[in-house]
Specification:
The chain has 255 residues and is an alpha/beta fold. It has one domain: Metallo-beta-lactamase, Chain A, CATH 3.60.15. The chain has 9 helices and 14 strands. Helix 8 packs parallel to helix 9.
């Protein structure tokens, strides 16, 4: 498939498919090997078709499928050095790594990838822009604060996949311990609906084709609330989709 498809998004597991005319990538591997294979099958893709797995950071909801995908299926992992070290310590085995440097763009086959730093509570977390032909996709979740660097990289994308994790009032009202609330609401936590809306208001442009709202908390957010917050800031002319935990979002074919 020549296109982009969120397979699952949320605290139980994150995984995105990105395909060019020559290359098939997974971005993060937070699902089991079986679940990943099932979701790829709906796109007529098998695990054997996947050329590499691009990893944003080492939290379990982004890497829990690596033991099966990277070790049993021998799919290479694209990661920065600190994340690779952490993955090795977690897996207790060494997969096939291809190391990139945060902030330095690189090419993988026919895909141009630019990893850039985000603020999150782990070692050297990154977001990405991926470019193939003249199409550019920005993928940016798991950040507590949208820095100037983040805005710079997302400003000229054709498709955006951006975190709208929570509604602060719902975080305060939930039954989770205070340490959880402080983490989620902090500058190294997750992006609120309003912060997402503000970020998008600064990076939307006339050629932007589609926005995906991602990593919504099932306990501290509502899809309609996230959409309302974003629509209030950027209007209703752009198509916006929610990337859900169980069924991801509809695929977008590049043209």
């Amino acid at each position: 498939m020549y296109g982009f498809c969120p397979l699952a998004s949320g605290s139980k597991g994150n995984c995105i498919y990105f395909g060019s005319k020559k290359t098939k990538l997974l971005i993060d591997a937070g699902l089991s090997g079986r679940a990943t294979a099932q979701k790829l099958a709906s796109l007529d893709i098998t695990l054997e078709d996947i050329d590499a797995i691009l990893i944003s950071h080492d939290h379990v909801d982004h890497i829990q499928g690596l033991k099966t995908l990277a070790l049993r299926h021998n799919i290479p992992i694209l990661a920065n050095a600190e994340t690779a070290k952490s993955i090795y310590q977690i897996l207790k085995e060494c997969p096939q790594f291809k190391i990139f440097e945060t902030g330095e763009p690189f090419e993988f086959q026919d895909v141009f990838i630019h990893p850039f730093s985000v603020q999150h509570d782990t070692v050297d977390p990154v977001a990405f822009t991926l470019q193939v032909d003249k199409i550019k996709v920005g993928i940016c979740t798991d950040l507590g604060f949208p820095t100037t660097l983040v805005k710079k990289h997302l400003r000229d994308c054709d498709y955006l996949y951006v975190e709208a994790n929570h509604e602060p009032s719902m975080v305060h009202a939930c039954s989770r311990p205070m340490v959880y609330k402080q983490r989620v609401l902090g500058r190294n936590g997750h992006l609120s609906n309003e912060a997402c809306a503000e970020l998008l208001s600064e990076v939307v442009h006339s050629d932007l084709k589609h926005i995906y709202l991602a990593h919504l908390s099932q306990e501290c957010n509502l899809p309609q609330r996230a959409l309302e917050r974003v629509r209030a800031r950027i209007g209703d002319t752009l198509p916006i989709s929610i990337a859900y935990q169980e069924h991801g979002a509809e695929a977008t074919a590049f043209v």
